[in-house]
Design a protein that fits this description.
single chain, Aminoglycoside 3'-phosphotransferase, Chain: A, domain 2, about 45% helix, six-stranded antiparallel beta sheet
Length: about 260
């Protein structure tokens, strides 16, 4: 199914995809699921979101996303881009080395200030070119931001007493709601300044490859609301990941490099 030159196959499952790793390529098949925030329940929808994944990720991943291919069945054999009935679709990617991932390099203690500068400049360059529109601006409104955080609190409430205390939950919820009340002008100004853009939406260490040039991949394709956001929210997600794992100094270097490059 994956061609005669494939000597090794490893299959990984996420809650939304089957991912097959071969010697040189990666093949991603979307599961036929509907979780509300994403809907891959039909063949047509899976094809659409496969194509969307390639389109969106090609913005910042040179020659990594190679295209969308049909999975076919001829009555006897399944094949990628073969003969017979199309039963699904797959995203084909060039395989990146796990050793080059920011997450891997970070765990080894090998990430330098210069690397963070390269990452900050790469993200700033992407954000400067990211799409803006009146529709995208609406996702920076107080109403949409509060909808997002209200949804977060609703979905995490069941974990009170397990991963968060009642006091922590209430303090965080109160602080968040007061922020909207006290910063309405700031929120509106961020929109007027053109800072709400078509971003990545899931920017963390596992989605950055320290090659030359920097490769960023696996953005959110299945829900515009998760991707249309303030550019500072996008890079802050990566800063939070660094800080959560003890990389406070690297996070500060990333912030400085990003702001300098963006301005």
């Amino acid at each position: 199914m994956y061609g005669p030159d494939v000597s090794e196959i490893q299959i990984i499952q996420t809650h939304i995809s089957f991912v097959t790793l071969t010697d040189k390529h990666v093949y991603k098949i979307k599961k036929p699921v509907n979780f509300g925030f994403l809907d891959f329940s039909t063949l047509e929808k899976r094809k659409y979101y496969c194509e969307k994944e390639v389109e969106l990720n090609s913005r910042f991943s040179q020659d990594v996303y190679l295209g969308v291919l049909p999975i076919t069945f001829d009555g006897s054999n399944y094949a990628i881009d073969g003969e017979g009935e199309i039963i699904d679709y797959v995203v084909k990617m060039r395989r990146l080395s796990d050793d080059d991932l920011l997450k891997t390099q970070f765990k080894k203690g090998m990430v330098t200030i210069d690397e963070m500068k390269r990452i900050g400049e790469a993200i700033a360059g992407f954000h400067q070119q990211a799409e803006r529109s009146k529709e995208i601006d609406t996702f920076g409104s107080k109403e949409t931001l509060k909808f997002n955080t209200d949804e977060n609190f609703e979905q995490t409430q069941e974990f009170i007493g397990q991963t968060i205390t009642q006091t922590q939950f209430q303090e965080l919820q109160t602080w968040t709601n007061e922020f909207y009340v006290n910063n309405q002008e700031l929120i509106q100004q961020r929109i007027l300044d053109g800072n709400i853009r078509d971003c990545h939406g899931d920017l963390h260490m596992e989605h950055i490859c320290l090659t030359d040039p920097i490769v960023i991949f696996d953005c959110i394709e299945f829900n515009d609301r998760f991707r249309y956001s303030d550019i500072l929210s996008d890079i802050s997600f990566l800063m939070m990941d660094l800080e959560f794992n003890g990389g406070d100094d690297l996070s500060k270097s990333l912030r400085q490099a990003y702001l300098q490059a963006f301005n």
